[in-house]
Design goal:
- This protein has 3 domains: 186 residues, 3-Layer(aba) Sandwich (D-Maltodextrin-Binding Protein, domain 2), CATH 3.40.190.10; 121 residues, D-Maltodextrin-Binding Protein, domain 2; 85 residues, no CATH class.
- It is an alpha+beta fold and 417 residues long.
- The chain contains 17 helices and 10 strands.
- Helix 2 links the parallel strand 1 and strand 2.
- Helix 8 runs antiparallel to helix 9, helix 8 packs antiparallel against helix 16 and helix 16 runs antiparallel to helix 17.
- The strands form 3 sheets. A 5-stranded mixed β-sheet has the order 2-1-3-9-4, covered by helices on one side. A 3-stranded antiparallel β-sheet has the order 7-6-8.
Length: 417
C-alpha cells in the first residue's frame, strides 16, 4: 500500500462498506451457514489471506467486500455503527484513537480471550487497541509501518556522503547530523535533501514522544516538542534544503523516479511506492532513520456490536491477524507484520530486486521494537493539520514562519474550546 492507499485508503474500508447492498450483518443462508460480512480497503488484506480464511472456516460464508477509500470514510463508518446494515467485521485505519470514544459500539475482544494472544504482537500496536482504562479492546492489529531512511545513492555520492547503508546508519544518527548532510548535499551536489518542509514536519511529528494534547485533553503542544520540529522544518526550508514537491502527487512520484532529492523517512510499505514509481535497481537504498523510531500507518480489524455472530466474527478476526495471514499479507502486499512471530531469520534476510543484495528488514524490525505507545486525543490529527496548512504557506507563499506558527496556534485554541 502506498501513502495514499495505506493511510487514507486505510481509512475507507470502514466507510462505504457499511452500506452493504442487500447484505445485513451476520445473515444465515439457506444451508444454515453463518454469514459474515467483512469490509476492507484495497491493500488491507491479501487475496491469499482471504482465500485461506475461507478454507479455515468452511462452515462460514465469508463475504469480503472491498470498499473504495474516500475522505468521508470515517464519517460514514461512525454513522453506521448502530445500523444493522453495518458489516460484521471492518478494517480501521491507523487513526484508531478516533474510534476509542465509540468503544461501546464494538465487540469487546477481551471477552473472547484476545489477551492470550498479546505476546504475539509488538507491544505498542497491541496497546493501541484498548481504551485508556484498558477495559475494552476494540480491534486486533493487522500491519504496522515502521520507518527507515530511504536514500538516493547518486545524490549521496555526488555530495561526498557515504553510500553504504551501514556507514550511513553510523554517520546520520540525529537531527544535527542529518541537517549537516542536507547542507553538504546542497553545497556539493546542488541538490535538496528533503522532498518538502511539509513532509519533513510530518516525519518529525511521528517521532514526538508527547502529543499536542496530554492524556487529560489539555493543550500542551507536546511540551515544546512541536515547536522544535516546526523550527527544524522551517530551517530546512529557509536554507534551500527542500525540493517543494508534494509526496502524494504526480510531481512527487516524478521527483522520486528521477532522483531529484536526497532522502526521505518512509514506512516499510514505501518499497511498493518505489516500485510503482518505476525507480531503477539500487537507485534508492535503505538505512536506519536518523530520527527517533517512528511508525507511519498500519491498520486493524474490528467486530461491530450489531453483528449477529460476534463469537464467529472474532474467530475470523483472530485468524486474519495471525502469523500465517500476516506472512501472506507481507508477501503479496508488503504489509509489515505486527505479529512478531513473523520476525524470524528468513524474514530478516528478505531481499528485493530494487535493493540488490541488501538485507533491509532489520531496520524496520528494530524501529518496530523500539516504539512505545502514546495515547492520543481524538482531536490530535485536526490540530496538527493546522500546522501542516501553515508550513505550506511558509513554503509556497513565503509567509513569515513565526506568524504562521501563531496563526496555527490560534486556530488550534479556537477548535479546542
Amino acid at each position: 500500500m502506498g501513502k495514499n492507499s495505506r493511510i487514507y485508503v486505510l481509512s475507507v474500508a470502514l466507510v462505504s462498506g457499511l452500506i452493504l447492498a442487500g447484505c445485513g450483518s451476520g445473515n444465515a443462508s439457506n444451508n444454515d451457514k453463518v454469514e459474515l460480512s467483512i469490509n476492507y480497503y484495497n491493500g488491507a488484506i491479501s487475496k491469499k489471506a482471504m482465500d485461506n480464511a475461507k478454507k479455515e472456516f468452511p462452515d462460514y460464508k465469508l463475504n469480503f467486500k472491498q470498499i473504495p477509500a474516500n475522505d468521508d470514510f470515517d464519517t460514514k463508518l461512525k454513522a453506521s455503527l448502530n445500523s444493522k446494515s453495518a458489516p460484521d467485521i471492518t478494517a480501521i485505519n491507523s487513526n484508531i484513537s478516533d474510534y476509542l470514544p465509540y468503544a461501546d459500539k464494538f465487540v469487546n475482544l477481551i471477552n473472547y480471550d484476545s489477551e492470550s494472544l498479546a505476546d504475539d504482537f509488538v507491544e505498542w500496536k497491541w496497546d493501541s487497541c484498548f481504551t485508556n482504562d484498558k477495559k475494552t479492546q476494540i480491534a486486533m492489529p493487522i500491519d504496522i509501518g515502521p520507518t527507515a531512511l530511504f536514500y538516493n545513492v547518486d545524490a549521496f555520492e555526488k555530495a561526498g556522503l557515504p553510500t553504504n547503508d551501514q556507514e550511513i546508519s553510523k554517520t546520520l544518527t540525529d537531527d544535527d547530523s542529518l541537517m549537516n548532510a542536507a547542507k553538504q548535499m546542497k553545497e556539493k551536489a546542488n541538490m535538496p535533501f528533503f522532498q518538502s518542509s511539509l513532509s519533513l514536519l510530518q516525519s518529525k511529528n511521528r517521532t514526538m514522544t508527547k502529543h499536542i494534547y496530554d492524556e487529560n485533553g489539555k493543550l500542551t503542544y507536546a511540551d515544546g516538542q512541536l515547536k522544535e520540529i516546526w523550527d527544524y522544518s522551517v530551517k530546512a526550508e529557509q536554507n534551500g534544503y527542500t525540493l517543494g514537491t508534494k509526496g502524494n502527487s504526480a510531481d512527487g512520484a516524478n521527483a522520486v523516479q528521477k532522483g531529484m532529492f536526497g532522502g526521505m523517512i518512509e514506512a516499510s510499505w514505501g518499497i511498493n511506492d518505489l516500485a510503482e514509481n518505476g525507480v531503477s535497481s539500487k537507485q534508492w537504498m535503505i538505512a536506519k532513520s536518523p530520527f527517533t523510531a517512528s511508525n507511519y500507518g498500519g491498520s486493524y480489524l474490528s467486530v461491530i456490536k450489531t453483528s449477529s455472530h460476534p463469537k464467529e466474527a472474532v474467530e475470523v478476526v483472530k485468524y486474519l491477524t495471525n502469523e500465517e495471514s500476516q506472512r501472506a499479507n507481507y508477501k503479496e502486499l508488503s504489509l509489515f507484520p505486527s505479529n512478531t512471530k513473523v520476525y524470524d531469520d528468513s524474514f530478516k534476510s528478505v531481499k528485493n530486486e530494487l535493493f540488490g543484495d541488501e538485507e533491509f528488514n532489520h531496520y524496520f524490525i528494530d524501529a518496530a521494537n523500539e516504539l512505545k505507545y502514546i495515547p492520543s486525543d481524538p482531536r490530535e490529527s485536526a490540530a496538527f493539520k493546522c500546522f501542516e496548512d501553515q508550513i505550506i504557506l511558509v513554503a509556497e507563499q513565503g509567509k513569515d514562519p513565526e506568524k504562521a506558527w501563531n496563526d496555527a496556534v490560534k486556530k488550534v485554541e479556537e477548535m479546542s474550546k
